[in-house]
Design goal:
Blueprint: H1 7-15, H2 17-26, H3 51-72, H4 77-81, H5 91-113, H6 130-136, H7 159-179, E1 188-191, E2 195-198, H8 199-221
Antiparallel strand pairs: 1-2
Helix pairs in contact: 2-5, 3-7, 3-8, 5-7, 5-8, 6-8
Length: about 230
């Protein structure tokens, strides 16, 4: 039977990433792989991504990378810091959130989900599809609160620092997807709303998350009070 999600639950899932991150950080890992290089179990052969899977992830990651950078290009300082309302984020704040989430989600994949041996017997636990993640997560029909540790706090000195943090994190993810021979489809991690997701789907979530918040930036820019220069 096809697994069904309400639009609200799919979008709310992004706001609950913190639960998965904090739970994973509090549990011991079985190994400590270096970033970008998981050492597979010797008990079973690995099954690397197919060419189609690798290409789909790379295209999505590149497209959402370009869309974010285009959305923040050429903004004046007034435009960068403009807040549509006291309880709404500026472009600067949304950008900080995107940059922090980039490294947080990828770090979770690397340090926790890929740390143990492959468990292909868990494949049946995955109910959410790749398409749902890429198409529904960016839908901003329903708004949710970001988890505390991903809220903007002025972590970066200026726009250049935010941009560099994002670009460095995204380049790291793209390089990993290009080169990894890890069995991403047979390593899994729990998401509090979407259920069990494989590691490849968590990579797709990185792209979908930035797409969602790039749309938020466009909403700020479309505000009637957004500075003209």
């Amino acid at each position: 039977m096809q697994y069904k999600f309400s639009r609200l639950s799919l979008v709310a899932a992004i706001g609950l990433i913190t639960v998965a991150v904090l739970q994973a950080q509090s549990s011991p890992s079985t190994s400590s792989p270096s970033q970008g290089a998981h050492v597979p179990s010797s008990e079973a052969p690995t099954k690397p991504l197919t060419a189609e899977e690798r290409d789909a992830a790379l295209k999505s990651l590149q497209a959402t990378h370009d869309a974010f950078l285009q959305a923040i290009a050429g903004l004046s300082e007034k435009q960068w810091t403009f807040k549509p309302a006291p309880d709404r984020w500026s472009v600067a704040e949304v950008s900080e959130h995107i940059a922090v989430a980039e490294s947080s989600i990828f770090g979770l994949v690397q340090s926790k989900f890929m740390a143990g041996p492959a468990t292909p017997e868990r494949r049946s636990e995955v109910k959410v599809t790749d398409e749902v993640i890429l198409e529904r997560v960016p839908d901003r029909s329903h708004k949710v609160q970001a988890p505390e540790f991903l809220k903007p706090t002025g972590r970066f000195a200026d726009r250049a620092a935010v941009t560099k943090a994002f670009e460095d994190a995204r380049a790291n993810t793209i390089n990993y997807v290009k080169t990894t021979q890890d069995d991403l489809r047979d390593h899994f991690g729990p998401h509090p709303m979407l259920g069990t997701m494989d590691a490849y789907q968590w990579i797709l979530l990185i792209s979908a998350h930035s797409a969602r918040h790039t749309k938020q930036i466009e909403e700020v820019k479309a505000d009637p009070n957004f500075p003209k220069d």
